[in-house]
Write a structure and sequence with these properties.
The protein is an alpha/beta fold and 421 residues long. It has 10 helices and 16 strands. α2 packs across α4. The structure holds nickel (II) ion. Nickel (II) ion binds next to loops.
Length: 421
């Protein structure tokens, strides 16, 4: 995903009361912090190992093998090969109760790493430049702590390690593979290391957090010819230029200005020579919205305008519209629950309301199916030189974020299970 988030106001909600929570009777915040600290060297080592051996989407074979091995060692029911390289572990608690799913992603990006630390990528042209190495390592540590309390758990925990978040998307395939069933999942917890928040800061937002993201491709066909004879041709490149300008009026003139939307055409292909009138022009773009109802209208809006403009010039326009990730919408109650959990791990004022971003995430598919919270785990630390954005060749994280994330995951899981028992 492509983050643009800054810390803002603290998340509203009552402060947690450590004295009365049933989940605190099971595992006190102090004991949880101690466990996370004890596991931290292993969590860091695991993250660095994943970092050294990054794998692209749907190629997460080594990562999945390690994840499945660790989950198996912890005594979980493990399923592999879901959505090709996905892994799922199920921890069945000793007492009856609901089921909560925690999701991590495992894939890396086609980027040449430019960091110089001792655990840089050993795979040329592939890099964990989004933090998914840390996600998988943290979820394994959380699984270890929760497995240690299996007998006392009021319900079940499902750990999902999905492939291909960076695209084309593994979440939808994991759901199709049955990861919301048997036992039926009641709630979702997701998280992302966040380069735009300092380490120690947690960002949470109920409602729409991240945009939908769809891909559009317009193929404009005119009539090629000699550059000297424009009157005998229909110039597809010129028509494309008008279409491109016309597209700018959809967001600015057709859509409620209070609902965010973006149409960006990042690629234009046309023309073979300076004196040849182009027969065809192709425009490729991304369409993002913050509202599923608005999102559904975008193919029609783009198609109508593009075809209309093309037709005015005697050309035609074919529209290929490929839906990708939906809007990421977090559930209010789950956000309050995770917010309370986070405030037992960091200071209350360190839990802030995340600002929405036009980046997108396939956790959205999970959150369409069940109520859930996707929280942002601050991991920047400019004092240590850790200040690069996600997907940058020098992206890095402050590993002090890892035990914080582990504790928030575990506390949220425990709080959810005990709240329903
Ligand atoms: Ni990511």
């Amino acid at each position: 995903m492509e983050p643009t988030i800054r810390p803002s106001a603290p998340v509203r909600g009552a402060a947690d009361d450590p004295g009365t929570s049933a989940s605190h009777a099971l595992l006190t915040p102090e004991r949880l912090a101690e466990l996370a600290r004890e596991l931290a060297p292993g969590t860091v080592a695991r993250r660095r190992d994943f970092h050294m051996w990054p794998e692209l989407s749907f190629q997460e074979v080594r990562t999945a093998t390690i994840v499945a091995g660790e989950l198996g060692d912890l005594g979980l029911e493990v399923q592999t090969g879901l959505a090709r390289t996905g892994v799922m572990g199920t921890l069945r608690g000793g007492k009856p109760g609901p089921t909560v799913l925690v999701r991590a992603d495992m894939d890396a990006l086609p980027i040449d790493e430019r960091n110089t630390h001792g655990f840089v990528s050993r795979a040329p042209g592939v890099m964990h430049a989004c933090g998914h190495d840390a996600h998988a390592a943290m979820l394994l540590a959380a699984a270890r702590i929760l497995a240690g309390h299996q007998d006392q758990l009021h319900g079940n925990v499902r750990f999902v390690f999905q492939p291909a978040e960076e695209g084309p998307g593994g979440a939808e395939l994991m759901i199709e593979a049955g990861c919301l069933e048997n036992p039926g999942v009641d709630a979702i917890i997701g998280f992302h290391i966040w380069a735009d928040l300092p380490v120690g800061i947690i960002g949470i937002r109920s409602g729409p957090l991240m945009a939908s993201s769809d891909e559009v491709r317009l193929t404009i066909t005119g009539h090629g010819g000699h550059g000297a004879d424009p009157h005998l041709s229909i110039d597809a490149m010129l028509v494309a230029a008008h279409v491109l300008v016309g597209m700018q009026t959809i967001v600015s003139r057709e859509i409620d200005p209070l609902i965010p939307a973006v149409i960006t055409f990042g690629k234009a292909e046309s023309g073979r020579g300076h004196n040849i009138i182009a027969h065809e022009a192709i425009l490729s773009g991304t369409v993002r919205t913050f509202d599923e109802a608005l999102r559904k209208t975008m193919p029609q809006r783009i198609g109508r305008l593009a075809a209309g403009i093309a037709s005015a010039y005697g050309a035609t326009c074919k529209v290929q519209y490929s839906p990708q990730y939906p809007v990421t919408v977090c559930d209010r109650q789950m956000c309050e629950l995770v917010g309370r959990a986070a405030r037992t791990v960091v200071k209350p004022e360190q839990v802030v309301e995340a600002e929405p971003t036009m980046g997108s995430e396939d956790i959205a598919y999970f959150l369409q199916e069940r109520p859930g919270c996707y929280f942002l785990l601050g991991a920047a630390n400019p004092d240590k030189g850790i200040d690069k954005p996600h997907h940058h060749p020098e992206f890095d994280i402050d590993e002090d974020a890892l035990p914080i994330g582990v504790q928030i995951i575990v506390r949220s899981v425990l709080d959810f299970l005990t709240s329903r028992s």
